[in-house]
Specification:
Elements (H helix, E strand, L loop, with lengths): L2 E5 L11 E5 L16 H9 L12 H70 L1 H22 L2 H13 L5 E6 L4 H6 L1 H7 L5 E6 L8 E4 L4 E3 L2 H16 L6
Helix pairs in contact: 3-7
Function: Needed for flagellar regrowth and assembly.
Family: Belongs to the FliH family.
Organism: Handelsmanbacteria sp. (strain RIFCSPLOWO2_12_FULL_64_10)
Length: 251
């Protein structure tokens, strides 16, 4: 048997309250009444009582770190993309500008080089013109040494000189041929050949002249003399070269 406490209020005699134990009966126990669905009171209670929303769960440290790393990766990818695009644009602009500048500099360098070449050639031409006489003298001196050396070693130079001089004679009635004493014998060996080869020769006298060098000869006639000395021939060559160099329009 259950025992509950019941408060019994008595006429106010004093300020004290007495609690007496009483025995509860089954039939006197009040059964709880179930609220009827759909009643105005129940609907009003539901309308008045607020419904508390469940709080959202707070992210963990691992989730926060993952979110931060994801945003960092996104930012880096975007930065790299924009950087590459800017680099490509700048590279193309720089390449075009560089080619333009390079072509201009190359043209300028080529023009300067051409000017330098023209100036050099002009100086060279002026130098040649200023030293024409010296160059001719040098060429004649070299030729003289070569001819002299050949005349000393071989006898053909004097024979050729005599043949050439005989061809220049206008009066061949009486001819006196003078040569170096060392060339006398070889020249006399060809006396008959020259008389037969050259038309109009009456008499041909061959004499030795120590004043002449090997390879030189002088022909004397009643109409004049023909000097075939090496010095004279080289002097003629010198004059001909100088005249050629001074001719206008020569290349």
């Amino acid at each position: 048997m259950s025992i509950t406490s019941r408060i019994i209020r008595t006429p106010k005699v004093s300020d004290r309250t007495f609690v007496l134990p009483v025995e509860s009966r089954p039939e006197e126990a009040e059964e709880p009444q179930e609220p009827q669905e759909g009643t105005p009171a129940q609907e009003e209670a539901q309308a008045v009582e607020p419904v508390e929303a469940e709080p959202e769960p707070r992210p963990t440290a691992v989730e926060i770190d993952a979110l931060v790393q994801e945003r960092i990766r996104t930012f880096e990818e975007r930065y790299q993309t924009e950087r590459e695009a800017a680099y490509r644009a700048g590279f193309e602009d720089g390449r075009a500008q560089g080619l333009k500048v390079g072509r201009a500099e190359s043209k300028e360098a080529i023009d300067k080089f051409a000017e330098a070449v023209d100036a050099f050639l002009e100086k060279q031409r002026a130098l040649v013109q200023e030293n024409e006489a010296a160059l001719v003298d040098l060429a004649v001196a070299v030729a003289k040494r070569i001819v002299g050396a050949c005349a000393e070693m071989r006898r053909e130079p004097v024979l050729l000189a005599v043949s050439d001089c005989l061809g220049y004679l206008r009066d061949r009635t009486r001819v006196t041929l003078k040569v170096n004493p060392k060339d006398l014998d070889s020249v006399r060996e060809h006396r008959k050949d020259w008389i037969e080869a050259v038309e109009g020769i009456g008499t041909l006298t061959i004499e030795a002249d120590p004043a002449l060098s090997r390879g030189e000869c002088v022909l004397e006639t009643d109409a004049g003399d023909v000097d075939a000395r090496i010095e004279e021939r080289l002097a003629m060559l010198h004059s001909a070269l100088i005249e050629e160099l001074r001719t206008p329009g020569r290349t």
